[in-house]
Amino acid sequence: MKNLVIVESPTKQKTISRFLSGDYVIRSSFGHLRDLPKKTLGVDVEKNFKPSYVVVERGKKIVPEITKIAMSSDNIYLATDPDREGEAISWHIMEILKNID
After folding, report:
1. Sign of dihedral through CA atoms 27, 17, 24, 75?
2. Is 20 left (phi over 0), alpha (psi -120 to 50) or beta?
Protein backbone atom coordinates (compact mmCIF):
# COMPACT_ATOMS: atom_id res chain seq x y z
CA MET A 1 0.00 0.00 0.00
CA LYS A 2 1.30 3.42 -0.94
CA ASN A 3 0.04 6.61 0.66
CA LEU A 4 0.70 10.14 -0.56
CA VAL A 5 0.71 12.99 1.96
CA ILE A 6 0.76 16.51 0.53
CA VAL A 7 1.84 19.36 2.80
CA GLU A 8 2.36 23.08 2.15
CA SER A 9 6.07 23.53 2.79
CA PRO A 10 9.34 21.64 2.34
CA THR A 11 10.06 22.10 6.06
CA LYS A 12 6.84 20.30 6.97
CA GLN A 13 7.65 17.62 4.41
CA LYS A 14 10.97 16.98 6.13
CA THR A 15 9.48 17.01 9.64
CA ILE A 16 6.53 14.74 8.87
CA SER A 17 8.72 12.28 6.98
CA ARG A 18 10.53 11.54 10.26
CA PHE A 19 7.28 10.31 11.85
CA LEU A 20 5.70 8.25 9.09
CA SER A 21 6.76 4.83 7.87
CA GLY A 22 8.02 3.95 4.41
CA ASP A 23 4.42 3.32 3.35
CA TYR A 24 4.02 7.08 3.05
CA VAL A 25 5.41 9.42 0.42
CA ILE A 26 5.41 13.02 1.63
CA ARG A 27 5.54 15.89 -0.89
CA SER A 28 5.28 19.64 -0.55
CA SER A 29 3.11 21.79 -2.78
CA PHE A 30 5.37 24.77 -1.98
CA GLY A 31 2.21 26.78 -1.31
CA HIS A 32 -0.39 27.65 -3.91
CA LEU A 33 -0.30 25.76 -7.21
CA ARG A 34 -2.99 27.71 -9.09
CA ASP A 35 -4.20 31.29 -9.29
CA LEU A 36 -6.37 33.48 -11.46
CA PRO A 37 -4.56 34.66 -14.62
CA LYS A 38 -2.75 37.99 -14.35
CA LYS A 39 -3.36 39.25 -17.90
CA THR A 40 -7.06 38.44 -18.31
CA LEU A 41 -10.17 38.89 -16.21
CA GLY A 42 -10.04 35.37 -14.77
CA VAL A 43 -13.80 34.84 -14.65
CA ASP A 44 -16.33 34.16 -17.38
CA VAL A 45 -19.11 36.72 -16.96
CA GLU A 46 -21.27 34.79 -19.44
CA LYS A 47 -21.13 31.65 -17.27
CA ASN A 48 -22.10 32.99 -13.85
CA PHE A 49 -18.57 34.32 -13.21
CA LYS A 50 -16.97 30.89 -13.41
CA PRO A 51 -13.28 31.26 -12.48
CA SER A 52 -10.51 30.26 -14.85
CA TYR A 53 -7.43 29.11 -12.93
CA VAL A 54 -3.91 28.72 -14.27
CA VAL A 55 -1.00 26.81 -12.78
CA VAL A 56 1.55 29.21 -11.26
CA GLU A 57 5.14 29.09 -12.49
CA ARG A 58 6.55 26.97 -9.63
CA GLY A 59 3.56 24.64 -9.95
CA LYS A 60 4.55 23.68 -13.50
CA LYS A 61 7.23 21.41 -12.04
CA ILE A 62 5.36 20.32 -8.90
CA VAL A 63 1.97 19.42 -10.43
CA PRO A 64 3.32 16.72 -12.77
CA GLU A 65 5.40 15.20 -9.95
CA ILE A 66 2.49 15.09 -7.50
CA THR A 67 0.13 13.81 -10.19
CA LYS A 68 2.50 10.98 -11.11
CA ILE A 69 2.85 9.87 -7.49
CA ALA A 70 -0.91 10.21 -6.90
CA MET A 71 -1.68 7.92 -9.84
CA SER A 72 0.16 5.06 -8.15
CA SER A 73 -1.07 5.83 -4.60
CA ASP A 74 -3.80 3.98 -2.77
CA ASN A 75 -4.60 6.96 -0.53
CA ILE A 76 -3.97 10.69 -0.79
CA TYR A 77 -3.91 12.85 2.32
CA LEU A 78 -4.04 16.64 2.08
CA ALA A 79 -2.26 17.84 5.22
CA THR A 80 -2.26 21.57 4.68
CA ASP A 81 -2.59 24.10 7.49
CA PRO A 82 -5.99 24.39 9.22
CA ASP A 83 -6.66 27.92 7.99
CA ARG A 84 -8.32 29.52 4.96
CA GLU A 85 -5.12 29.54 2.94
CA GLY A 86 -4.45 25.86 3.68
CA GLU A 87 -8.03 25.04 2.77
CA ALA A 88 -7.64 26.89 -0.55
CA ILE A 89 -4.39 25.06 -1.31
CA SER A 90 -6.04 21.70 -0.55
CA TRP A 91 -9.05 22.57 -2.72
CA HIS A 92 -6.83 23.43 -5.69
CA ILE A 93 -4.81 20.23 -5.24
CA MET A 94 -8.04 18.22 -5.08
CA GLU A 95 -9.28 19.90 -8.27
CA ILE A 96 -6.01 19.11 -10.03
CA LEU A 97 -5.99 15.47 -8.91
CA LYS A 98 -9.68 14.55 -9.18
CA ASN A 99 -9.50 13.68 -12.87
CA ILE A 100 -6.43 11.45 -12.82
CA ASP A 101 -6.81 7.77 -13.69
Report:
1. negative
2. beta
- Tell me the one-letter amino acid at 98: K
Pairing of strands 43-44, 75-78: unpaired
- What is d(CA 86, CA 65) in angstroms, rounded to the nearest whole number? 20
Beta-bridge mates of residue 27: 6
In which region does residue 91 sit, left (phi positive, over 0), alpha (psi from -120 to 50) or beta (all else)?
alpha
User: What is this structure's pTM?
Assistant: 0.86
HEC assignment per residue over 18-74 = CCCCCCEEEEECCCCCEECCCCCCCEEHHHCCEECCEECCCHHHHHHHHHHHHHCCC
Q: How confident is the model at residue 100 (pLDDT cuts 50, 70, 90)?
A: confident
C-alpha separations of 66 from 4, 25, 41 in Å: 9, 10, 28
High-pLDDT (> 70) share of the chain, %: 98
